[in-house]
Write a structure and sequence with these properties.
The protein is an alpha/beta fold. It has helices at 4-38, 45-48, 51-93, 95-142, 144-150, 153-205, 211-253, 258-261, 315-322, 345-350, 366-370, 380-389, 393-397, 414-427, 444-455, 473-477, 496-502, 505-517, and strands at 274-282, 290-299, 304-309, 330-335, 338-339, 352-355, 432-436, 465-469, 481-486, 489-494. The chain folds into 3 domains: 4-253, ABC transporter type 1, transmembrane domain (ABC transporter transmembrane region fold); 274-351 and 430-517, Rossmann fold (3-Layer(aba) Sandwich); 365-429. It binds adenosine-5'-triphosphate (ATP).
């Protein structure tokens, strides 16, 4: 009647195609998820969702999705067809016995549904707990020096064990649920056989069906129940995958920043005039805490402006707004009179040189780290020129492979990393230079020399505007203008002399620093 074997062979042929499609979808999904992650407007997403967690999800979750499409869907399709065939044949053989089997399969499906939902929830939990355990392991290993110095190996191990214990708990409950599901299946399967033998035997005795028909019936009802079981098993595995992949789906649902979608304005030249006009800002993760309030100041072309203030007063946040990592909540930033948010983001970032507080280098050779982000081809001699300007050439030349040396976190000191980051900023020959504690790890002499380079005119003889955040008096004194911040607001603006005469917060800060030095 039904050549199931042939049917299986044909459907298994489809399996190869399914896997092919699944792998294509997998690659596309990973690309989409990475794309959404890289182009997010709110980069604080990465603060809450640790990067390690995200990357493990990108791999593991997408593989789950691929497995579902390539394997589970194929098996579901095969068993639905097989079950439907068996059901039709059973009803043709004997509809009362066929209906009994349908009743048992319905109960089986209901148990399956509950089990599938449970698996979905459990899979989500397993993903979350595994991610937390991984995070602890990653954190402990990356902060191994801090852990050793504080002698907290035992505590860290305890933290890791706690998460593993939670994982074991969930796995135990999952196994119990699987046992219950298997028990239900076996009980229902055997009850079908008992019903078939009991009622079928009675029907044979009454002469309604033949022994041959009953044998066929038992065989096909077995097919039907097994198909129902397989469909259930695969649907629960599908639910698990859906549960586990929810985070990746959520990531892909986030819209990329409009900065990258809409092409903005490219100015005909950039003089370097920056104006902050009544700028206020709240971080999206802390919408009730104003970090910057009604800030207005300007940086004229060629000017060096220092931003000073207590720790946490909002200095780096101002820089983040200028780099367009965030949009001001109120007010606006103008560049050469044009609103910053209307400028083409790539064009703008090409014209800015930025050195952050603790510059991070990529695991590439030193030359690639220096030329990182440059849009045109950079000659080796230009890289060496930038390194010389940043007072990095001597130590780079002393490394075993010179500029070809692969950068490793342990290889370079904080000051050496800063010099490479400074060379990276200089090589871009930017119109605007932003330095956030960029020379804090340099010795006094190197800092003095490097400052001269920051100020110098650009290769096309135009001036360069510099915004510098610093705590060291020597750096601040050299600025044309000093902006003093306190609690997210500007409390004083002026030159070093003017501010000392004012005898306000700046004068107090400099006196304290002078006292500390003496
Ligand atoms: N991504 C963030 N999400 C939420 N709050 C943040 C974030 N980054 C900084 N903050 C908060 O904003 C405030 C200002 O931080 P900011 O880094 O701008 O200060 P700062 O003056 O540069 O400090 P420092 O001199 O120590 O670098 C702080 O209270 C800080 O906790």
């Amino acid at each position: 009647m039904f050549n199931f074997w042939n049917m299986q062979v044909k459907i298994f042929g489809v399996r190869g195609c399914c896997f092919g499609i699944a792998n294509m979808i997998l690659v596309k999904r990973i690309r989409e998820a990475l794309y959404s992650a890289l182009l997010l407007q709110d980069i604080s997403f990465f603060d809450s969702e640790t990067v390690g967690d995200l990357t493990s999800r990108l791999g593991a979750d997408c593989q789950q999705v691929s497995r579902v499409i390539g394997n589970d869907l194929n098996l579901i399709l095969r068993n639905v067809l097989q079950g439907a065939g068996s059901l039709i044949y059973l009803l043709v053989l004997s509809w009362p016995l066929g209906l009994c089997t349908v009743g048992i399969c319905t109960i089986l499906s209901a148990v399956m549904l509950i089990y599938g939902r449970y698996q979905k929830k459990a899979a989500r939990l397993v993903q979350e707990v595994t991610a937390s355990a991984n995070q602890v392991a990653q954190e402990t290993l990356s902060l191994i020096r801090t852990v050793r110095v504080h002698g907290t190996e035992g505590e860290e191990l305890g933290r890791y064990k706690w998460w593993l214990g939670k994982l074991a708990d969930i796995s135990l409950r999952q196994s119990a649920a699987y046992g219950f599901w298997n028990l239900s299946f076996n009980s229902l399967y055997h009850s079908t056989q008992v019903i078939a033998v009991l009622f079928g035997g009675m029907a044979i005795l009454a002469g309604h069906i033949t022994a041959e028909k009953l044998t066929k019936f038992i065989l096909y009802s077995e097919w039907l129940i097994y198909s129902t079981w397989w469909v259930g098993d695969n649907i629960s595995s599908l639910m698990q995958s859906v549960g586990a992949s929810e985070k990746v789906f959520r990531l892909m649902d986030l819209l990329p920043s409009s900065q990258f979608i809409e092409r903005g304005v490219k100015l005909q030249g950039l003089t370097g005039l920056i104006e902050f006009i009544d700028v206020s800002f709240y971080y999206p993760s802390r919408p009730t805490v104003p970090v910057v309030q009604h800030v207005s100041f300007s940086v004229h072309p060629g000017e060096v402006v220092a931003i000073v203030g207590f720790s946490g007063s909002g200095k780096s946040t101002l820089v983040n707004l200028l780099l367009q990592l965030y949009e001001p909540t109120n007010g606006q930033i103008l560049i050469d009179g044009h609103p910053l948010k209307e400028l083409d983001i790539m064009w703008w970032r090409e014209r800015i040189g930025y050195v952050g507080q603790e510059p991070k280098l990529f695991r590439m050779d030193i030359s690639s780290n220096i030329s990182y982000g440059c849009t045109h081809y950079i000659k080796q001699e230009d890289i060496e020129w930038a390194a010389k300007q940043a007072y990095a050439h001597d130590f780079i030349s002393a490394l075993p492979n010179g500029y070809e040396t692969l950068v490793d976190d342990d290889l370079l000191s904080g000051g050496q990393r800063q010099r490479i980051a400074i060379a990276r900023a200089i090589i871009r020959d930017p119109s605007i230079l932003v330095l956030d504690e960029a020379t804090s790890a340099l010795d006094a002499e190197s800092e003095y020399n490097v400052q001269g380079v920051f100020r110098s005119v650009r290769s096309d003889l135009t001036t360069r505007s510099v915004i510098v955040i610093a705590h060291r008096l020597s750096t601040i004194k050299a600025a044309d203008k000093i902006v003093v911040m306190d609690g997210g607001q500007i409390v004083e603006i002026g030159s070093h002399r003017e501010l000392l005469l004012k005898d306000g917060l700046y004068a107090r800060l400099t006196r304290k620093q002078a006292d500390a030095m003496s």
